[in-house]
Amino acid sequence: MLNDFLKLFDFTQDEIQREAPRFARAFEICGITDIDIERGIRRLDEYFEMKLKGVRGVLAATLLAFNSHILAKEDGAEKIVYGEWPLPPQIMSAACNVAPPTVFLGAPTQLINVVLGQVFGKVAPITSAGEGCGQPAGNAHCALYQTFLGAIELGIIPKPDLLLASGFWCDPPSEAAEILHSLYGIPILYCDGNADSPWNYWPKAWERQVRYFGYQIEKMVDDLGDFIGVEISDEAKRKTIKANAALVYNQQKISNILAVADPQPISHVSAALGNWLYNIPLSPEVHARAVNGLATLVDEIEERVKKGKGIGEKGAPRVYFSIAGLTDPSIISMVEQTGMNVTNIFFQLYPPRALYRTEYKGFGHKVAMSYQKGGPFVGSFGLIEFVKDYVNMCNLDGVIYSFSYSCKGYSTPAQMVKKDVEKEFGIPTLVLEGDIYDSRNYSAEQMRTRVETFAEILREAKRAAA
Amino acid sequence: MKSIEGIMTHLKRNRALELREAKKSGKKIVGYPPGNWVPEELIYAAGAVPVCLLRGGNPEAVAISAAYIPRFIDTFCRSQIGYYALGEDPFYQMLDLFIAPCTDRNQSSIGDCFAYFTDIDVLHVGIPHNKEQAALDFYADGLRMIIEKIEALTGNKVTDDKLKGNIELYNRIRAGLREVSVTRKSPAPPISGKEFVRLNHASYLLDPSFYAAKLDDVKSELSETEAPDKSPRILLTASTLALGDHKVMDLTEETGAGIVIEEIPEGVRNYWHDVELDGDPVVRLAESYLGKKTPPAYFKPSVGRIDAIVKLAEEFNVDGILWYQLMYRESYDIQAFYFGKIVKEKLGIPFLELQSDYDVSETGAFRTRIETFVEMAASR
C-alpha cells in the first residue's frame, strides 16, 4: 500500500527504495495505517489535481519535509528548534544555511496540517490532545497551536530544545511557547513587535514598527546563532532572502493567474499548496523540488488558461473566499462546487500597491518591511484594504469573508469588511464564521446552505445585469 | 465607608456634568482603555482631560456589540463598542480623541472598532511585550506620539514643568491608594476589597486634585474604623475588573470571606510604584508605567506576574486565590493553566478559576463554586 501511495508523486525507483522505510517509520509514529493510506489515496484523487505534474511535485516536497520533521531526532539531530507561523521564515532559513548537521530547524505544524489533515483527514485527534495542554476547547484558542502542542504531547514530533516565538501579529505563538516552557522547561526566544500602524496608513510602512520589529528579528538571529553555536553570516541571510523569494515568486504567479482567469483553471486546494511551504525551513533538495514543482504548476495552469479549460463554467460569478481550510480541503472544494469562480483565497495575493521597493538595507529591516506590506499584518485597516483591492483586481461579483473564529486578527474586521465592500462596490458580502485549522465545528456541510444561497444570489445578479 | 460613598456619589452625579461644562469651554476630552498604559499625566499636561473607558459587567452592552465585532474577543473589549452604541454612558459620548494601546489582539480591537464605527479620532499606540531597553525606548517613543497628538489637538505645549507637576499629583494619588491598600494586611482589614476597587476605579474618572483631597478623607476615616477579623482572606486576580463588574466581589464577600488584595492589570490603577521626578519625565514615565509594572499575562515572558501574585499572597497572608478572567482572553486562560499548579506547589492554598461573559446566568454557578472555594480556604 505504501508503495502505491509513493508512486503517486513521481518519486524515482531509487527514491522510493531510499525513502520508503522513512515513510513507513514516519507513518508509524503518526499512527497512519494501511487503511489510512488507502483513504489518503482516495482523498488525493478527490481533492487534488493529481494529473498535474506540478501538484505531484509540490506534494512530494511537502511529504519529504514532513518526514524530516517527524524523524529529526532519529536522524541524529542533537538540537531541535521550532518556530511556527507567523514567525518570519527567513530567521530559521538563514540559520539552516550555516547550521551543523546535528541541528534541526523546523516549523512542523503546517506540514502536519497538510499531510495528516488534507491528505489523511486525521488531524483532529492531535488538535484534541493540544486542547488538554492548557488551550481548552470552547475558549477560542488557535487550533494551529493546539495541534502544535498536541503533536509534541503525543510524541508525533520530537520535543524541541529551543522555541522561537513571535508576538508582532498575534498572541498564541508566545502563549503556546509559555505552556511548553512550563511543561517541559524548553527555553524560548521571543521576537516582539506590534500591529500599531495608524488607521488609513497602509500601504505606507510604519517606520517605528519597521525599526522595532527589524531590531527584534536581528536579535533573534544573533541569539539563535549563539544557541546553535555558529554565527549566522550576512551571506547566509542574503541566501535565504533569495531562496524564499523563489517560492514566493512562483506562488504569486499562480495567484495572479487565478485572479483574472475565466473559467477558474484549477482548484485552490491544489493551487495553494506552495503557500504552506514558504513558512518552513527546507533542505536545499526539498526546496529545489518545491520550486520546480511550483514552476511546473505555473506552466500547467497557463496552458489550461490558454485552452480555456477550467473546473467550472466560463462566466461564473467571481468570488473571493478568505479562509484557506488548511486541514480540510472539503471546505474550499464545496465552495468551488457551487459553481462560483473562486478567484483567490486567504491573503496570499499581493495587491500591486503593496509591491513597492524600499531603501532598507539590513536583513532585519528588510524582513520587517516585507511584513509592513502585507496588509493584515499591520492591523484591521490593512486587511480591509487588501480585500477591497481584490474586488478590483479580480473583478469580483461577491466576497465571502469567512474568518477563523479563534483568530482575532482576522475576526475583528469581519463586519468592517462587509460594510466597506458593500458600500463602496455594491457587491454582496457574506460573513461566515469558520476555522482554518480545525473543521470539527465548522464543516463544509454546515456552511453549504449559506454558500449555495449566496452563489444563487450572485448568479441572479449577473443574469439581471445581463 | 462614608468617604468612599461620597466619592462615588460625586462621580455618579457630578463628573459627567463637569466634563460637559469643560468641553463647552473648549477643553478636549481624551479617552483610553484601562491597562495603565496611557499616563494621565501627559493628557493633563497638554491641557486636556483624560477619561478611562472602564465600564463593564452589563450583558446588554455585550449583546449589542455583536453587530460590530464577532463574539470570540475578550468580553470587556467587545463590550466597549457596545457601551458606545448604547449611548447611555455620557463618558463614551464626549471623546475628542481615543488613545488605543495595542497590547494584545483583544485590546487592539477596541481601537479598531472606535476607528471604524465612530467619528472619534483614534491614535493606535503599540505596547511592547517585555521590559528590555529596546522595549522601554519603543514605549517612550509611543508616549511622545501621544504628546504630539494631544498638543496638536489642544494647541498647548507639554512642558517638562507641567508634566512634572502632574506626575507629582499622581504620585500623591498612588501613595494614597498604596496607604489605603496596605491597611488590609491587618487581620481585621478596615476596608473591603469591593470598596477598595470602587475607590480605585474612581481615580480613573475624577479630577485628580479633587480625588487626592478625598483620598485624605478616606485615610482619616480608615484610621478611626474598627473592623472585625476577616477569614478566610482571599486574593483576587483578574484579567480585567471593570467599573460595574461586581459580581465576583459581591458573591465572595457575601460568604463572609474578605478580598484583601488584588492583582488586576486592567481596571485597577497600579499604585505600587511612583514615577521618579528627576531627569527626562517621558523616560521616567516609561520606566514606571512599563519598567516597574507587574507584567500582564500577554507579556513574554509573563512569569513576572506569577511571581508578583505569589509575593502578594504571602505578604497579605491569604488563604485562597480567586482567578477571574473574561471569556476569550487567551493569555490569561493559558496562564491559569500553569499558575494553578504553582499555587498548589508554592503556597498550598486553594485556587479557583472563573470565566465570565458578563452573563446573568453565570451567577448561580459562580455562587456555588465560590461558596465551595471559600469553605476550602476557611478549612486550612
Structural summary, described in words:
Chain A is of the alpha/beta class and 466 residues long. Chain A contains 19 helices and eight strands. Chain A has helices at residues 2-7, 13-30, 34-47, 53-70, 89-96, 108-119, 124-131, 143-153, 172-184, 207-228, 234-260, 268-271, 284-307, 330-337, 363-373, 380-393, 408-411, 414-425, 444-465, and strands at 79-83, 103-106, 162-166, 188-191, 318-321, 341-345, 398-404, 429-434. In chain A, strands 2-1-3-4 form a four-stranded parallel beta sheet, sandwiched between helices. A four-stranded parallel beta sheet of chain A has the order 6-5-7-8, with helices on both faces. The mean pLDDT of chain A is 96. Chain B is an alpha/beta fold and 380 residues long. Chain B has helices at 2-24, 40-45, 59-65, 75-86, 90-93, 105-117, 133-154, 160-182, 193-202, 208-224, 247-254, 281-291, 303-315, 330-347, 362-378, and strands spanning 29-32, 49-52, 97-102, 121-126, 233-238, 258-263, 320-326, 351-356. In chain B, the strands form two sheets. Chain B has a four-stranded parallel beta sheet with strand order 2-1-3-4, sandwiched between helices. In chain B, helix 2 (40-45) links the parallel strand 1 and strand 2 (49-52). The model of chain B has no long low-confidence stretch (mean pLDDT 97). The interface between A and B is large, with 53 and 46 residues.
